[in-house]
Amino acid sequence: VREHNRKLKKEGKLNSNKRRKDPGVPNSCPFKEEVLKSAEQRQIRLEEEREKEKERRKQDRQKEMDKRRNLASGNLDSFVKNAQKRGADFERKNVFVKDQMKEHNA
Fold first, then answer.
1. Three-state DSSP class for 11?
2. pLDDT digit string (tens) for 53-89?
3. Which of 8, 10, 35, 34 is nearest to 24 (CA)?
4. Exposure on the CB side of residue 77, measured as CA atoms within 13 A
5. Distance in angstroms (rounded) separating the CA atoms of residues 45 and 38
6. Torsions phi, psi of 42, nearest 5?
């Protein structure tokens, strides 16, 4: 079984390298120039979109890093306030659950 799986995996690797080559546009095509120009414009547009997406992800990462740095270094007061708020919310929920349990048991 192991050898069979190994052979299948090897065949899959060999077949994955075989890509069809783009035949291009034949010279006999009457509007070859327009087709080539539109293909080139499409490639340029796709490349620009990739660059924009890459830049957006980079900015998102930078924002996240700045947020973490601010939280870790200088914003201790906001961190404490947030922790106190969450603690109060937890206590309120805890009291509510205890009251519900008392009503249910009674």
1. helix
2. 999 999 999 999 888 777 666 667 777 888 899 999 9
3. 35
4. 1
5. 10
6. -65, -45
